[in-house]
Amino acid sequence: MPVTFKHQSILIGLIFTITACDWGRTPSRERFEKNCHITLPSDVQVLRDEYQDMGSDYAIYYTLKFNPGALKTFVNSIKKSNYYDDVVFLNRTINNTILKESKNNNGVWRKSLQGYQFYKKIGEIEFTEFNINLDTAARIASFEEAAN
After folding, report:
1. Rounded Cα gap, residues 89 and 113, in angstroms
2. Where are the domains of the chain?
3. Taking 60 as the threshold, does the pLDDT of residue 60 lie above it?
4. CA–CA gap between residue 54 and residue 24 (Å, rounded)
5. H-run or E-run covering 96
6. Which pTM was predicted?
């Protein structure tokens, strides 16, 4: 049976659909648990789970709402993380200087005025950054992963 234009169009459409749906991507939950050395409680509400593809760059946005018990469990997970540094409490943006001041200069969890913040950068020229802001009063955590 010869391959016709119709068959080629269907095949191209299927390939486009599969790649556009982002099938095969590691779930956001797993990505952030692994890279930020935390455990997310199972009983959280996902407010946003978005993947934005920009060619070789990408961004992932993952926002969670915690009930009071889940928030307490999550804060305990932060405090048990290898990245947690209770000495670093600053009212400024986390950057490479702060990473060098922390006990683990690969990433850092720290207290903030709103709750807790996390920052981690992997690589220099081609890099991936992880940012998390946990607002303990609102019980909302915003996770961002961006590759450059």
Report:
1. 9
2. 25-147
3. yes
4. 17
5. helix 96-101
6. 0.75
